[in-house]
């Protein structure tokens, strides 16, 4: 799909973008290059993915003009007090002059000196037993007040948030210092976590929804769902086409991740689902219950509802 959607800044965002969480080193480089050669014009990364170097290198090597590509990166939780500096650091790693979208990765600040090199998400407490989440001297409203100044610098064409609940967004929008509505809210969405209320809320406020882990993340569990397999067989398409088409038909940005060039290419192909098939996919979470797959046990998104 080459379809684009409109952000509240007036910019266009390609509906299907390449996700790069868990894409490492040369895999990240190869998948971004394969995506751009195939016709993708939207790449999503983050400081904490530790692949901005490779992603940027692939963007520069692709030969696709910079202005034709929509690039997103994200502020990590340990730098909530210094988004301008963090953005400069990301741009340096990417080797780019600007990103199209800069997102606050989570609505929670982590102690800046909590972990130097590692995977903060898997360790909920510091070595001395204290909590990594700093909720006493800081909140995401302050972070947003700093972030909303960034578009003026031209280094981020738009700013937005990620992993924000409806209540988080209400707090942000109602805050005294808020001057700018986030351009986007990037959250986990797939047939087992359809996020219908959040999608409706964001639509009402002009905030673009972006769905991450659209196939259910690691090992793509959704591609094994009997309902999906049956629809794929009936339509003579791959299960991934069915799931990504369901997302696209719901009208938001979808960010499938793959490091395999063939699967990268496949994931951009979408088709129109019949009403019956669309409803059958909606029925999956109704029958099985909703399930968050990304950090279900460390989720500020849940903890700070
Ligand atoms: P790989 O990177 O080896 O292709 P999500 O987008 O929900 O985060 O899902 C990513 C997971 O789905 C990864 O394990 C990825 O593996 C796998 N994946 C991505 N695209 C496809 C596809 N078309 N068919 C099968 N598995 C896929």
UniProtKB/TrEMBL annotation:
Coiled coil: none annotated. One of its GO terms (molecular function) is aldose reductase (NADPH) activity. One of its GO terms (cellular component) is cytoplasm. It comes from the Eukaryota. Residues 16-285 form the NADP-dependent oxidoreductase domain. GO terms for biological process: alcohol metabolic process; arabinose catabolic process; cellular response to oxidative stress; D-xylose catabolic process; ketone metabolic process. It is found in: Cytoplasm. Keywords: Cytoplasm, NADP, Oxidoreductase. SUPFAM superfamilies: NAD(P)-linked oxidoreductase. The keyword Secreted does not apply. Pfam families: Aldo_ket_red. Belongs to the aldo/keto reductase family. PANTHER family: ALDO/KETO REDUCTASE. This is GCY1-like protein.
């Amino acid at each position: 799909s080459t379809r684009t959607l409109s952000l509240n800044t007036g910019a266009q965002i390609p509906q299907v973008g390449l996700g790069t969480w868990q894409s490492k080193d040369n895999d990240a480089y190869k998948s971004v290059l394969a995506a751009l050669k195939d016709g993708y014009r939207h790449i999503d990364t983050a400081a904490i993915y530790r692949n901005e170097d490779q992603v940027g290198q692939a963007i520069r090597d692709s030969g696709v003009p910079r202005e034709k590509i929509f690039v997103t990166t994200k502020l990590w939780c340990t730098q909530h007090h210094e988004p301008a500096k963090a953005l400069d650091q990301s741009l340096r790693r990417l080797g780019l002059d600007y990103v199209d979208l800069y997102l606050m990765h989570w609505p929670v600040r982590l102690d800046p000196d909590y972990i130097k090199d590692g995977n903060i998400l898997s360790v909920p407490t510091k070595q001395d037993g204290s909590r990594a989440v700093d909720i006493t001297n800081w909140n995401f409203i302050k972070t947003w007040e700093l972030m909303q100044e960034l578009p003026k610098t031209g280094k981020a064409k738009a700013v937005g948030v990620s992993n924000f609940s409806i209540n988080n967004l209400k707090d942000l929008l109602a805050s005294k210092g808020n001057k700018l509505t986030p351009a986007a809210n990037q959250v986990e969405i797939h047939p087992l976590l359809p996020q219908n209320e959040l999608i409706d809320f964001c639509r009402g406020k002009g905030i673009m929804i972006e769905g991450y882990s659209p196939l259910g993340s690691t090992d793509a569990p959704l591609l094994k769902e009997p309902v999906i397999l049956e629809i794929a067989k009936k339509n003579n398409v791959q299960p991934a086409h069915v799931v990504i088409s369901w997302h696209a038909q719901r009208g938001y940005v979808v960010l499938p991740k793959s490091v395999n060039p063939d699967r990268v290419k496949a994931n951009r192909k979408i088709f129109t689902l019949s009403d019956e098939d669309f409803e059958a996919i909606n029925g999956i979470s109704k029958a099985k219950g909703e399930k968050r797959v990304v950090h279900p046990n460390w989720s500020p998104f849940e903890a700070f509802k």
